Amino acid sequence: MSKIDEICKYLDAKFSSDGKIQSDIKELFVYRASVPTEFLTGVYEPALCMVFKGSKLAKVGNDFYEYDEQHYLLAATHIPAVAKIKGCPYLAIKINFELEDILGVIESIGGAESKKGKFAGLALGVVDDELLEAVFKFIRLLERPNDAKFLAKLAIKEILYILLKGENGDFLRQYAMLETIENRVTRAAKEIKSNYTEAINIENLAKKLGISASSLYHNFKRITALSPLQFQKKIRLEKAKNLLINQNLDAAEAAFAVGYASPSQFNREYSKMFGMPPKAHVLAITGA
């Protein structure tokens, strides 16, 4: 039995329902699907995404990223995207991490600085046996909940160490090292995401990060394919969608909750992003 088959057997025994499943380890999410999907909106965050059955296609701007059993996806910052499940049955995981975790590993092992270059916010890599073994070891911590509270972070650092040694080492270093533009954009995206209801002041944010407003704007758009204001709009609308579905708010309530002053503007922008007005979209998703 291959390592991927072992992982599939293990996950199949623990997670049988379709959908996105938060595991008992807070950094680990499991995804299952029985049928392909159309492109759906979402936001990637710093994470390793691995597929053990099927395949998924993500699109950021004009760039496409397809990952499957042989290829993983790395996200180094918060990236609004559209993605669809192509091959089914689909079984995948996401392991969240913080850039501080990468920096901690870099400081522990030392080594060469990253090669200077312009990196997108997502990267693909080839899955190998060493990575699979480390990931499976992390997943199996589900059997040891008391130990997982301590060992999960160590297991994630082992996974990051393997990734840093591999083809995407420079990609990860560039986002983790504090002086790089990629790291500054990542911190800007994180701040906007954390304070999405508040108005953005690009000048103040750029000053806080130690760069010019024009540099922040240009590089933010290069990495995320969105301007800071467009990024905030995507975050607000994703949050609003979740409120509409999970908390049964009406459109006006959701609009005000995520920072809109005008419900009519919210309705226009929601319809443009999701292809239908809020009420119709909720009905299409939930059937109620």
TrEMBL record:
Q: Does the keyword Transcription feature in the UniProt annotation?
A: yes
**InterPro entries xref list:** Homeodomain-like_sf, HTH_AraC, Tscrpt_reg_HTH_AraC_N
- GO molecular-function annotation terms? DNA-binding transcription factor activity; sequence-specific DNA binding
Please give the Gene3D superfamilies that the UniProt record associates with this protein: Homeodomain-like
**Which is one Pfam family of this protein?**
AraC_N
The record's keywords, sorted A to Z, are: Transcription, Transcription regulation
Domain (HTH araC/xylS-type): give its ranges: 186-284
Write down the superkingdom of origin.
Answer: Bacteria
UniProt key word rRNA processing: no
Q: What is this protein called?
A: AraC family transcriptional regulator
Q: Which organism is it from?
A: Campylobacter concisus
